[in-house]
Amino acid sequence: MAYRCKNTRIARATTSSIRWPMRLLALTAALMLTVTSAAASREVPRGQTLVIGKVSDKPRKHYKRLRPMLDYAVERLADQGIRAGEVVMARDNEEMIELLRSGQVDWVTETAFSALRYVDDAGARVLVRKWKKGVPEYHTVFITRRNSDIHTLSDLTGRRLALEDPGSSTAFFLPVGALLDTGLTPQELPRRDAPVPHRRVGYTFAGGEINITAWVARGIVDAGAYSNIDWADPDHTPRAMRENLRIFHHGEPIPRAFEIVRGDLRPGLREALRRVLLDAENVPAGRRAMQAYQSTTRFDAITPTIEAQLATVRRCLASVREMLAR
Amino acid sequence: MKLHQRYALVIGALLLLVAIALSALHDRQQRGTIDRITDVGQTRFAQAMQRTLREHAASVARLLANGLTTPVYEYDVERVYEILRDARRQAGIEYVLVFDDQQLILHDGHESIPRFGQPMRGAMAERAVRARETLVQEDGEIIEAVTPIHAGAQYLGGVRVGFSREVLTRNLNAMQADFAKAAAAGRHSELVRIGYATLGIMAVAAAMGLLVARQLSRPIRALATAASHIGTATGDVPVPVVRNDELGALAEALRRMQVDLRERTVSRAQLAHILDSMHEAVLVLDADYRVVSHNRPARTLLHGGEQDLQGLPIAACLTESLPPRVTTRGADRPPVQIEETVLRRLDGSVVAVGMSLAPLLDEPLGEWVCVLQDLTERLEGRRRRQLAAGLFEHSIEGIALLDETGRIVQVNAAFSELTGRNAAAIEGRRFSELVDRDHRSTATRLVHRVRRRDRWEGELHYLGTDGGPHPARVAAAAIRDRDGDLEQVAVVITDLSQQRRAERTIHHLAYYDPLTGLPNRALFRNRLEEALATAARDEHALALLFLDLDRFKIINDTRGHACGDELLTAVAHRLQSALEAGDCIARLGGDEFAVLLPALASADEAQQVAIGLIHAFAQPFDTSDGELFTSTSIGISVYPRDGREAESLLRNADAAMYRAKEQGRNTYFLFTQELNARLREYGELEHELREALHTGALELHYQPQVSLVTGDIVGAEALMRWHHPVRGWVPPGKFIPIAEDSGLIGELSEWALAEAVREQQRWESAGLTGLRLAVNLSARQFRDPNLIQQIEQALTASGTSRPRLELEITETFLMDDIDHTVQLLLKLKELGVRVSVDDFGTGYSSLAYLKRFPIHTLKIDRTFIRDIQEDSDDAAIVLAILSMAHALGVAVVAEGVERAEQADYLSSHGCQYAQGFLYAPALPGETFLARYGPRNGPMERASAGDHER
Fold it and tell me: Which letter does DSSP use for residue B323 in this model?
């Protein structure tokens, strides 16, 4: 179901998960916005409109973050025939892949794992690396209690490991990939207090970074894994808990996020957009737009190092998928 | 201040004091009541708030404990945080703590849990960890509720919620403020009510005071009113008071005084009233003739107020001195009467008055009584009568005064002059006897009509000095006596004889041609309209013949205008005699006549009349310059076939007349539909030509002029071409006459001149140099005083430094105005512009004048060239022209050379130049340039294809 507003289009999966008053509001807004957008789309043909997409369950919040960056880019792409911009929201990666394939979305901002999915499944192209919240790359840390006897990944055999959720990059894919690389055999536990099968590493989902920290600190699990950014964040790792914890393994660094474009985007427009993004940190208006755009501090070009990191991620993704398929 | 007002003030003030005292007492009682209510209310509210807060804290703690059971059990710290975060947003909550079964803090409500794992301290903490059910405790400003968390029978810990008493205090303070505000508002509204009540009491007090006071003072006021009227002109007022007290006695005394005064005295006011009602001005004067007393008419007469007249020395107002006997003083003072004198008013104006002065016996009142009578109206009446008498006697209109029987009482000199009879012979006779018999009955009824309606106006024929009737406008008016009865009738007679004669003259001038005496265009048109109406009603035909004398202009120019006028007069008489009585002939102007045949049996009848008229011209006309022959061309239009309105019939007859001229003159032509179509096409072409000129559809084509000696091209003639989007190429012979008739030729020629000069410049830029370019000049341009300026502008615009322009002028124009022609040709020569005479041989040229003209070229008309080898006359003319040109030293161009034999003949007889299809037709400018430009060879004779074009 598409929600449109002037120069904006928001796609959402269903309305069944929205409470009734919200559905009513959303329906009213959709009716109003569809009318105005019909006029708007008549005004500006699709070929002259740049469409940015985002997978989101909070369309309103993300719209506010994406819009300034989109406007900034549209203003500078007039020589490419771009006269307007639209924002499109998808409920999940599958829908976004469909939008990229059908050409309804031109440009997406995502983490490395999702970016790789769009490249592989929708034929999208990675345009630039994004320094989301000022961070170009991050990695997974494995933590345990300070007095634990766990010191390497291999020590996790027969132990319980807390991970965030099955969609997390640094708190699921990367740590599980690391375990597989080490030759260990991770296995999800049906309950967190269920016994760990023989010669396996049992893992359970804590649902949030603070719970990983608390569970390790409390001794409910033996270890936990999440990103180095979570480790440094007192909201995710309170100081009182961290005093009793320690990191026993650092994973390989991976890029923080990417800007991706659909594969059949005009080469001229693609290149122009790439130049606009790379140059944004040098322009006051660009810096303002980046700040709104998830506190981004710069975009940089894809280097061989980054490509190697992406290859690592791709391998990790493949091995984890293979494990899950078993 | 009046008596009842004083009473009212005193009574009102007393009542007001009482009201104020009562209000103050009431206010004091109210204030005490409100203060007591406020104190009690505040205390009870504070107690209630305290209880509510404790109960609320316990409820919140219980709710939190319930919600936290599962997250604490599962150690879901993130969920615990979400619950505590929501709780802390509630107003009044100072802190929320969740502790585990070991009394260590699990969560403190902050995201980074700074107190995580810390033990709790203090008396309240000790009581909290021991609590096995909800406990509410207080410490200073904090009210804390603790609820233990159980998972079934398992004790997991508890939740502590701390509320700040500050909220309670704030609410109490707010309540106190509200109470105070409510009390203040209550007091304020009470004060307002008291204020209104006091005002109401004051109003009632004032009204009551006034009522009582008026009641007390009423008999005194009645007595005062009655007393004030005693002895005045208004007369006595009854004394209404009847009482048995002192006021009753006073009223009785007043009534007696009224009776006494009424019986024994005449008041001064009554006297003044009498004097004011008089018509004359009355002044009482003292011994020095100063005004002591006067009446209202005196103020009116002297234009002064009462104060102005008091003490006024009357002698100063008289322009004449008083008679000596009046100025003397003494006991024996006889009255004085002055019939008419002039009185100067106080504002400086003067008025005629009659005056009488009589001595007064009553010394205290004054010495004299002076009566003045305004004579203005009387004198004015006299002046009017004198004026009327003068007007009557000296008026140029005849005036007679009749008595009520219609007999003449008096007449003035003018009347005697009009009728040729002296006053003595007229007076006593009836007015109707002096009127023509046809109007006599009207004259007889005149007095009767005036008696009824006061006035009568009309036209009568009176009997003049010659005894015959003369038209006159007669105005009669009634003269009535004071009772409105008819006394006399004034009859004014204005002779209209001269006016009638003038009207006839004007009519004749307006509707008749002064030269021939025939009806003019206006009258003819009126008669045509009338005849058309009759023909339409009776359904018969009528015909209109439009005549134009042939070559009249030549006669006029050669014999003079006087002779021309004589001829026109003779023609008019001849035409009149050739027509029947019912036919109408008119001169429309110049040498144009029109004949209206109002009733026709058929169109053939009109043709017969036309033939008769043409025959009438067969005989010569006698003029003072001898006998003259002339003829006429006649156009005929017939109603209803050729038009139903005067305008269309005239237009069509005119068109038919031109057709007759085209057919050789001295004939007639009946209007036809074919002619109509031609006229329409003519009109359309004129419109389209006008558009073509502005849309650029006109072009100039250029026909080369060739040297018959060398074969080289020496020049070109610019010829106008019109390519019509529908008609194709329109021949110049068709559109040039239209342009001439419509006046467009001037604009066309200007454009052609400018365009030709531009083309020449283009050729020269392209290397085609040294060619003369000939441009035809229209008659209108030739006479245009701005011609020289136009040529200069065209040359300047083109940037041509050495103009090779040649203007072609027809022979006829040259001879029109010899002086103008010479002047113009000299100026053109100064500009370096050559002049050639076009169509030479077709007009009349005076060789003597031709010699005087600075011309360069003669162009032999194509009609002489066409048959030059077959027609000996044409050959002779051409040879004569060539011979003459050689003698005058001018070049000759032969036009319309189409065959090589013609060119050879001309060359062998000394003609230098030729143009025609033999060499080339007229070509567009670009084609001309392409063909004769610098990259092409010498001039060659045209191919067979060119001939055909």
Answer: P
* DSSP letter, residue B778: -
Q: Do A235 and B114 touch (CB under 8 A)?
A: no
Pairing of strands B350-359, B368-374: antiparallel
Question: Which one of B77, B115, B117 has the shortest CB-CB distance to A210?
Answer: B77
DSSP state of B671: -
**Strand B291-294 to B281-285 pairing:** antiparallel
- pLDDT tens, residue order, chain A (326 aa): 333 333 333 333 222 333 333 333 333 333 333 333 333 444 678 889 999 999 988 888 889 999 999 999 999 999 899 999 999 999 988 999 999 999 999 999 999 989 998 999 999 999 999 999 999 999 999 999 999 999 999 999 999 999 999 888 889 999 999 999 999 999 999 998 899 999 999 999 998 899 999 999 999 999 999 999 999 999 999 998 999 999 999 999 999 999 999 999 999 999 999 999 999 999 999 999 999 999 999 999 999 999 999 999 999 988 998 999 88
CB B289 within 8 A of CB B313: yes
Amino acid at B66: N
Kind plus residue range of the DSSP H or E element containing B638: strand B632-639
Q: Whole-angstrom Cα distance, residue B869 to residue B35?
A: 148
pTM: 0.41
**Alpha carbon of residue B810 to chain centroid:** 52
Token pair of B574 as six digits: 């001849």
What are residue A86's DSSP bridge partners?
A: A51
Beta bridge partners of B610: none
Tell me which chain A residues have a C-beta less than 8 angstroms from the C-beta of B115. 240
pLDDT at position B152, please? 84
Answer for the pair B345, B317: CB distance below 8 angstroms, yes or no. yes
Query: In degrees to the nearest 10, what's the CA dihedral of B724, B727, B728, B730?
Result: -70
| Contact residues, chain B, for A240 at CB < 8 Å | 113-118
User: Which of B82, B111, B113 would best serve as a mutation to test chain A binding (most A beta carbons within 10 A)?
Assistant: B113
Whether A240 contacts chain B with CB within 8 A: yes
Does residue B715 surpass a pLDDT of 50?
Answer: yes
Which residue matches tokens 């006071």? B213
Q: What is the pLDDT of residues B490-544, one digit of tens each?
A: 999 999 988 988 988 888 888 999 999 999 999 999 999 999 999 999 889 999 9
| pLDDT over 70 percentage in chain B | 93
**pLDDT per residue as tens digits for the range B102-127:** 888 999 998 889 888 888 888 888 88
In the predicted structure, residue B414 carries a pLDDT above the cut 80: yes
Of the candidates B631, B638, B666, the one whose C-alpha atom is nearest the C-alpha of residue B652 is B638
Q: Cα(A203)–Cα(A196) distance, rounded to whole angstroms? A: 9
- What residues of chain B lie within 8 A of the CB of A215, using their CB? 75
3-class SS string, B830-869: HHCCEEEEEEECCCCCCHHHHHHCCCCEEEECHHHHHCCC
Cα–Cα distance, B520 to B526 (Å, whole number):
10
pLDDT of residue A25: 38
SS3 letters across A133-201: CCECEECEEEEEECCCCCCCHHHHCCCEEEECCCCCHHHHHHHHHHHHHHCCCEEECCCCCCCCCCCCE
Tell if the CB–CB gap between B114 and A238 is shorter than 8 Å: yes
Q: Beta strands B728-730 and B713-724: pairing type?
A: antiparallel
- A211, A233, A241, A245: best mutation site toward chain B, by most B Cβ within 10 Å? A211
Q: What is the DSSP letter of B434?
A: G
d(CA B729, CA B370): 114
Structure tokens belonging to residue B759: 């083309």
Angle at B910 between CA B905 and CA B913, to 5 degrees: 85
CB within 8 Å: A220 and B75 = yes
A139 neighbors A250 (Cβ within 8 angstroms) = yes
